[in-house]
Amino acid sequence: MSLIKLVDLYKTYHMGEMDVPVLKGVSLEIGRGELVALMGSSGSGKSTLMNILGCLDRPTAGEYWLDGEEVSNLTNDERAVIRNKKIGFVFQNFNLLARTSSLDNVIMPLTYTASNMTRAEAKARGKKWLERVGLGHRLDNHPSQLSGGQQQRVAIARSLVNNPPLLFADEPTGNLDSRTAKEMLQLFQELNAEEGITIILVTHDAGVASYAKRTIKIHDGLIVEGAFQDTDAAVAESNGQVQPVQVYGVL
Amino acid sequence: MNFITRIVILAFGALTRNIMRSALTTLGIVIGIAAVIGVVEMGQGSSAAVQKTIASMGADNLLVQPGTASSGGVSFGSGSVITLTPQDCDAILRECPAVASAAPVVRARTQIVYGNKNWVPMYIYGTTPSFLVVRDWQELEEGDMFSDRDVRNGSKVCVIGQTLVKELFPVESPINKEIRVGNVSFKIVGVLSRKGANMMGLDQDDIVLAPWTTIKYRVSGGTLASVNQSTSGGGDVTQQINSLSQPYPGQSNAAQYPVQSAMQMADTPQPVRFTNVDQILTRASSTEEIPNAIRQMTELLHERHRIKSGQPDDFDIRDMTEMTKALSSTSVLMLRLLVVVAAISLVVGGMGIMNIMLVSVTERTREIGLRMAVGARAADILRQFLVEAVLLCLIGGAVGILLGRGGSWLVSTILHWPTQMSIPAIVAAVLVSATVGLVFGYYPAWKASRLDPIEALRYE
Lengths: 251, 460
Fold this sequence. Notes:
heterodimer, A: alpha/beta, four-stranded antiparallel β-sheet, 9 helices, B: twelve-stranded mixed β-sheet, two-stranded antiparallel ribbon
């Protein structure tokens, strides 16, 4: 069974009198354990789609099945619980809490989990994930004492601390230099391969997208490529032929 | 992890992330609470001082008087029956916990002579040393009060007020001088300090205090005996036994009147005259205890005088209602004034909190967006900011209490103003600062909880 399934999804914004359709009937499916890139130019509806996929926003019409549950009609609070339990977010600008240690940043989402985890347990969990992303020696550093790549690693550890099946990375390399970006993307590949986490890389950069096994391209509110797994076999193969390093030359 | 401690730790972390701003934010509350605590403590101190002064005027005093005699529908007015005994006074002191002190009073009115001067004082009181405690008059100008032993012995000693000093001893010291009260000679052992006029304008310094036994048996004994038709001179059993009633030793009444035979005495029985006092002056242990003191004394005297319920009392108890009212009205006025001051300062402090919390919400929009993205519900955000505001106010309140206590301590040690620690004010300060945090923190917290996570995450 697929982790994500969109059926004929619409999103229309109301700008005063005007109705602005942003998503015009999107259908797609993403299976468990996939590493997918969501590509599109600005204004294509990419961000809107990501917000809906990330349960931050609600579609105007259509179905959204996440992990076997129809989530398009949930209330704000119900969606907050879904985000907490099933979805991790990694942002372009890291969004770490300033003047807060890496460890405290990582365990922050646990505050909102209903589970009655002790602080020691939470810390142990946070430490485990920080070690997993290679920052076991930086537990007590504040974000300002970390490099961009290290900050993004903290953000990744934070997104995974609740063991979500799905991870969104919104332009995760946008603020990093090419070498760090490459490390970061390799970390995503590693997490995808070893932990089996479904990762969706949202980007406008073909170089970043090339790290994914499948690329979903959106243009003008419609999926133009890679909506379903069957069709992406060819894409994955062609991606496999292109060397990521070469693509980075484009960056 | 405990839910509440987790939230408090979270809020505390957020506050310590910007210590300077948190400190400045809560400054309004700190100053407000400190001012309230300081003013309340100083106000209570001066109020207590004023109350003490008013109390020394006799506000806590309760006067027990004998009741009314009436005959054939004619009432003789208050104090016209003889019902109170010195033993009543002892019993009141022993058995009424609300009564702090009590003194029996025997009155007399007669001329006082010293050398070539004479004077009729307004009050000649026969009493015990505790009279001065009851009237809050312990400080003597000169000499000492007579003792309980003098009372037991019926010693011919007295203490005089300032007016008598002025009238009888314009130049010399009255101590150890002999004055004649009626026809009994008294030695002056002490001079009372100046008390001035009472609320009715009567001169309270125009007074002679002597042991009640002496006044009763040596000064007024004879006169009362002649006034009271039920006893006549030498026929009185008690007076025969009691040689004290003879002002001049060696004088015999028998010379003036023929001795009654036993037959005559049996034919004309004389009522046995017990030792009575004219009034009992008591002092309640505090102004609040006055009603209790009255109740306890009434019950006790009912019992001692064997008055069944329904029968009229043979005594009256008076309190100084007017003065008590004045007392409570000053403290009520003071309290209202303080409440107004406190309210104003705390509203101002609360506005400061609200302002900074609003700024803080705007500044932390991205953080709020992030928290929402990782699963914080609107209620979580609301609670977080509310707890932050309340915590800020409580910390401010705690600091304010310490500051206020410190300030009032300084004032009392350096300026010697009377101050008094007020537990209710401290409790109120804590409650009020928490309430201020809740009220003024609610709007910013509500605003934060209403943010759209997508917008908030994008906020620059």
